[in-house]
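#onboarding

Welcome to the new folks! Below is a worked example of what a typical request in this channel looks like: someone posts a single protein sequence, and someone else replies with the predicted structure as tokens. Don't worry about understanding the tokens yet, we'll cover that in week two.

Example request:
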Amino acid sequence: MGVVKDHLLLGLFLSSLIGLFGQNMEKEWMLGPFHRPPNASPILTKDTLSTFFDPLLEQTVSWESMATFNPAAIVRSDTIFVLYRAEEKLGDKEIGGHRSRIGMAYSTDGINLMKKQTPVLYPSRDKQQQYEWPGGVEDPRVVETEEGVYVLTYTQWNRKFPRLAVATSTNLKDWTKHGSIFEEYKNGKYHNQETKSGAILTRLEENKLVAAKINDKYWMYFGVPHIWLAHSEDLIHWIPLETHEGNLAPVLSPRPGYFDSWLVEAGPPPILTENGIVVLYNAGNSQSIGVQDLGNRVYTGGQALFDPKIPWKLLDRSSQPFIQPEFPFEKSGQYNDGTTFIEGLVYFRNHWYLYYGTADSRVGMVSTKQR
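Example response:
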């Protein structure tokens, strides 16, 4: 099954539980505490001058002129690579009406990023065009296998159905699309309904997160407004966990009276530790039945602990968010109710780095490193 080795776990908790101002996490199994850098500001923002020749339109477009947000992250060769959603502005359309592609940036210190000039994943004249056009490709998460293959989950958005899809690469630049993960399952039973946010289980191995197996299967937490679970033998073809009635079985749901009263959504790839599976998730608040002081439809981050042998068995859960919108750049943008939408988590130079989208507009970062 593979768990975090004792000495790594001890070092991780010693380094991450000692925070600024003596801050401690709510529960001992949680990751953190996470801190914003001094004078916190976005680490990725839109660029109206960045251009790309679109193979479908057959013209040059400003591919990140609207927003850059919702990032995945992975470590390779002592460098953090951030794969982020970039939106091309299409008039005055609302959220979901622009066009998304996935760009890549890299950093050797975790905070200062250099962007690649063109996107690395985008709609093209391929078998996935009907599912990815005209809305694009959105909200990536990425893991690495023991063999060094990168597996990217992302949302295909044709403005009819958001579908969870998989792509693979050996270099993070050239991607092979494998399509919607549920297209073939039970004759496409879940193919034409909303599926998104695929977070594949990982473990910490030699200071690197790699895809992990439980009972000889890979596992993925996915979805919104509940979080569901699926398993796979090859990380490409997935079988969802279902109830005896044959419906998707929620493993984490919204809770009236808490910060996650409106919805829950899978965050970055979960981590298999000796305490269990730590799942970081995005949480939406419904002010009327949730937390009054938090605001309505505000996205924060929570953590849940699942059984390391039974990945659908919930053991514990945070009662308050460990990250939430605080700064103006986290509360202003396309989604002005505010978001700290977590998607990218890496272990880098003995610290956790967590990358998140802010207000559907920019990318922020918090870490366990004291600066």
